[in-house]
C-alpha cells in the first residue's frame, strides 16, 4: 500500500557526542527544502542539542555547524519537540532550551504519525 505524505518526523536520540545528530539535522533541513512539513522529536542525549550553548559544542565537517543547522531549521518553519523526562533528567527546564523548542511528550509525534507522517530515527 502506497501513501503520500507531506509530513516528516525525525526522532533524534543522539546529541553532541555523535555525528548522527548532524546527519539528522541535515536530512531534516533537506525535508523542508523538499516541501515537507518537518518536526524533530529529541530524546535521550538529543535534548542537549537544544540546550542553550549545547549546539555550539560540536561540528562535523563537512556538514554545517549544528547551531547553524538548528537555526536554519527553525527559521524555515521546522518544529522542535523535546522529551519531558529527558529534559528533566538532565536538570533542564524550558529556560535552558533554545527559544521555540517545545517540551512535550510523544503524543505530539504520534499525532503527526497518525496524520500520515513518514518517520526517520537517528
Explain how this protein is built.
By secondary structure, the chain is an alpha/beta fold. The protein has a single domain, classed as Hypothetical Protein Ychn, Chain: A (3-Layer(aba) Sandwich), CATH 3.40.1260. It is 32% helix and 19% strand. The chain contains four helices and five strands; from the N terminus they run βαβαβαβαβ. The chain has helices at 19-33, 66-75, 84-89, 107-114; strands at residues 7-12, 37-42, 79-82, 101-103, 118-121. A five-stranded parallel sheet has the order 4-3-2-1-5, sandwiched between helices. α1 packs parallel to α2 (66-75). The longest helix has 15 residues, at 19-33. The protein is globular and about 40 Å long. The chain starts with 6 loop residues before the first strand and ends with a strand. The relative contact order is 0.25. The mean pLDDT is 94. It holds the Pfam family DsrE. This is Peroxiredoxin.
* Total count of helical runs of at least 4 residues: 4
Strand order in space, largest sheet:
4-3-2-1-5
Largest sheet report: 5 strands, parallel
CATH architecture: 3-Layer(aba) Sandwich
Number of domains: 1
Mean pLDDT: 94
Radius of gyration: 14 Å
CATH superfamily: DsrEFH-like
Question: What fold name goes in the CATH topology slot?
Answer: Hypothetical Protein Ychn, Chain: A
Order of helices and strands: EHEHEHEHE
Q: In oligomeric terms, what are we looking at?
A: single chain
